[in-house]
Amino acid sequence: MTPVELVALAASTSLLAGWRLYLVTLVTGLAMKFGWIALPEQLHGLDILANNWLLAVAAVGTFAEFFADKIAWVDSAWDAVHSFIRPLGGALLSLAIVDSGDTGWQVASFLLGGGAAFVAHAGKAGARTLVNASPEPFSNVIVSTAEDIATGGLLALAIANPIAAALIAACLVVLSLWLVVAARRMLRGLIERLNPPPKATR
After folding, report:
1. Of the candidates 96, 70, 97, which has an alpha carbon nearest to the alpha carbon of residue 4?
2. How far is residue 6's CA from residue 201's CA, in Å, rounded to a whole number?
3. Where do the structural domains in the chain lie, given as residue ranges?
4. Out of 51, 115, 133, 188, which residue is the most buried by the measure of CB atoms under 10 Å away?
5. First-to-last CA distance in the chain?
6. Tens-of-pLDDT digits for all 202 residues of the chain?
């Protein structure tokens, strides 16, 4: 991979880690283990992702997250717990993928990866909070399944074409953040209409 493709791969995996950290870690580790990603020889940081123990932990986390994400109250609690874990995981993934031989690159990739994962997590958690508030369970399952498919598809694209995957992932994150802001404005307006302020008495 070229340096630009490596940066794009780091960006896309960090963004996706904000949605599905364990799935991203599992697939990236498998890609490293079986040579699906052609990395330069100096990038030994990814060796840890191909470790069998880490792959096993990521597989268990992926399994747990798949089902936790389908139950509204469990999903909200899961997102709250992972508000710190996902950004840190995204930062470490970015640090492992980008050439960390230079200290400046280490700091930049760690901060940008963590920031990208945090933005993606904030958009996902905010949007899902509104969906989880729905009284019927089907919308939560549908949205969660769509996130699973989108994450898997973008991961496959990231391996085949990192630049395209990074652009698409960034657009999805911006869209999710916009949806959160728009939905909260609608919710605030609805609450204000249902609970108008009391009229002033003379």
Report:
1. 97
2. 66
3. 3-190
4. 115
5. 75
6. 666 777 777 788 888 888 888 988 888 788 777 776 655 554 555 567 777 888 899 999 999 988 888 887 788 888 888 888 898 888 888 877 776 566 777 777 788 888 888 888 887 877 777 776 766 667 778 888 888 888 888 888 877 787 887 788 778 777 767 766 776 776 677 677 777 666 655 5
